[in-house]
Design goal:
- By secondary structure, the protein is mainly α.
- The protein has a domain of 62 residues.
- The protein is built from four helices and no strands.
- The longest helix has 33 residues.
- The radius of gyration is 24 Å and the shape is elongated.
- 2% of the residues are buried.
Length: 109
């Protein structure tokens, strides 16, 4: 049997990273993860809209869609506790109705 010889621990060089550096690296990694999610979702939505015959190349569509994706970004960021400029706007301007009251707005025609 082969004997495994460990690497001498005295030769392992470890950088002494401060807490701010580690925190920033974690935030960057989390933000990159969120951006990858958003990229995948955006591609999928565009693909599906085009399958339904929606013209996704017009300037107005791109403006509207960009806002929608930014709102989605703000939602994903909020879940992972990353600040986004839309959070304050959404908090001040978007109110949810309770599910019990939502049926009051449904037209029974």
């Amino acid at each position: 049997m082969t004997e495994i010889i460990g690497f001498p621990k005295s030769r392992i060089v470890r950088e002494n990273m401060n807490e701010d550096y580690i925190k920033k690296a974690k935030e960057t990694g989390l933000q990159n993860f969120c951006e990858a999610i958003l990229h995948d979702l955006t591609e999928g939505i565009i693909y599906e809209l085009e399958n339904y015959g929606i013209d996704t190349s017009s300037e107005k569509f791109i403006e509207d869609f960009s806002f929608a994706i930014e709102a989605l970004r703000a939602s994903v960021y909020r879940v992972v506790k990353i600040d986004h400029t839309l959070h304050e706007f959404l908090d001040n301007n978007v109110k949810l109705k309770s599910s019990m009251n939502a049926s009051d707005d449904v037209d029974d025609h």
